[in-house]
Design brief:
The complex is a heterodimer of chains A (about 180) and B (about 70). Chain A has three helices and no strands. Chain A has about 180 residues and is mostly helical. Chain A is rod-shaped. The mean pLDDT of chain A is about 90. Chain B is about 55% helix and about 0% strand. Chain B has one domain. By secondary structure, chain B is mainly alpha-helical. The longest helix of chain B is centred in the first third of the chain and has 21 residues. Chain B is elongated and about 70 Å long. Classes of the chains: A mainly alpha (about 180), B mainly alpha (about 70). The interface between A and B is medium-sized, with 35 and 27 residues.
Amino acid sequence: MHKILLATIIFCSSFLFVPALHAETSTGKVGDDNSQKIQQELEDRREEQRQEIQTKRIETRLRLAKNHAERLQKRFSFYYERLNNIITRFQARLDLSKTEGKDTTTSQQLLDQAKSNLLSAESKGKEAIQTFTSFDPEWSQDEMQNKVRLGQSQAEEARNAFKQVLELLKSALKSYD
Amino acid sequence: MIKKITILAISALLLGGCTLLGSKPNETGQGMDESLIDSTAPTSESTEIDSLKADINNTVIFEEDFSDLE
């Protein structure tokens, strides 16, 4: 009799634990869902941060390119104006010397070359400035890097051309003496 | 007294450090560029050979620096 009673009690009490077990399982599911949600949020936030960094990087590059364009514009205009002024005055000097019977053939040749090189330097300078002003925020990293290299090499070419003009003027001056 | 001097020295170091960190280097040397160009003697209008010589010798073609874009 006691055995039957004990078995009944055990059987009934087992029903008491079923809802508890069930509840435990549900909590586990909710926990999993929550952690997945947090994981997703973190991932989204990281992606947002990556995007922000990328945007800032592009903005900085565009600003720097614009600064370079302005700097080169100022510099190359300065070289052009200055060298052109010297060439004009030098030509006037040579014209005067020719009327006085002085042989200015070599100086004139060098000055003519300087005039032609100055035009080329000016045009190369404009190309470099154009490259730095044409930067587009839609470009990829590689495209932007290629444009930087192009602008750099164009600016360097323009600089060398201005230097050549200066050297030609020095040579023309020497041959005049 | 020594304590006061130590505090003053540390404060001075901190202030100096903060000032250095706070100062932003000039991007692309714009300011330097302007001063270099402005410091170049202007050309004369004379066609005398000495004047031409002086203007040619005072002309400098500056280096280009694009390191900030690398």
